Amino acid sequence: RSPHDNHHLHRSPHDNHHLHRSSHDNHHLHRSSHDNHHFHRSPNDNNHHLYRSTTMNVLYVGSGRSALLAAKADPHKYTICAVNNAWRIFPFPFDYWIYSGDFPQDNFPLTRNFKKEVSHFDYETSSAAVCKKIAREERFPQHHLGYTIFFQGLYWIIHHLQPRKIYMLGFDHDYDPAKVKKWKIAGEPSPQNHHLKLPQSFFETNLSDSFYGYGTPDPMRLGDDHMRELFQRAGDYSTRLGVLLLNASGVTNGLNPFPQEMLP
Known about the structure:
- It is a single chain.
- By secondary structure, this protein is α/β, with parallel strands linked by helices.
- It has six helices and eight strands, in the order ββββββααααβααβ.
- The chain has helices spanning 120-123, 126-133, 141-145, 149-161, 177-185, 224-240, and strands at 37-40, 51-54, 57-61, 79-83, 94-98, 114-118, 165-169, 244-247.
- The chain has a six-stranded parallel beta sheet with strand order 6-5-4-3-7-8. The protein has a two-stranded antiparallel ribbon with strand order 1-2.
- Helix 2 packs across helix 4.
C-alpha cells in the first residue's frame, strides 16, 4: 500500500486520540438479527474454547482494487469492517473502522460514517487471546500471527466478533513483482522512514494495486515466503475456531489463498 495506507503498526501519538462517539456507540453496537451470538462453554473445555452458534457474516475490506466491490454490498447482510483508507469506499454507514497506529491523521475520515473505530489500543491484545484459545504459547503472539494491519484486524474480528464467515475484498495482496523489486531497491520507504521520500511519479510505470492509486507494498517487508506462511496459519487457526475465511474478489493471482466465494 502507500504512505497513506501502510501496514506497519507502530503506535503513534494519535493512537490514543479516539474520535468522538455517541452514547449508543459505547462498547456495543446495535445488531440486527444476523448478528446474534449464543455462546456456551463445554464442561471439559480446559482451554476455554468458545463453542458458538452464530449467523454473523463479516465483510472485511482493505485497499486493493477489488475493495471497490464493497460499495455494492448490502449492509444489512454483513457486519462491515473497513481498514485504513477503505472508509472512503462506502456511500452508507458501516460498522467498524480499523486503522493502524501509524495511519496519517490527514487521511482520517472527514465525517464519521461508521459506528465504532478500532485502533491499536483495541486490537493489540487480540493475537494473545487467539493463541490462548488454541492453546498455543507464544512469546510474541502478534508477530507469530502476522504484524501487519491485515492480520491484526483479522484476528481482532475473529476474537471479538466471532463470526461464522469472513468475506474479504481488497486483501488479495496481488502486488506487481516489478513494483515490489523497485520498492525494495529504494529502501522500502514508508512513513516510518521519513528520510526516504519517493517522488509521486515513482510507481507510475507500474500497475496500480490499490483503489486510490499508487502506493507502497508494505506487507512485503515480511517477504513472500513468510507472508504465505502467515496466510496458511490464519486459515488453520480460524478453522480451529470455527470461522470460515473467504476471498470474495475473484482475484486468483495474489498471495491470498482463501477459497473464492462471491458475496451472497
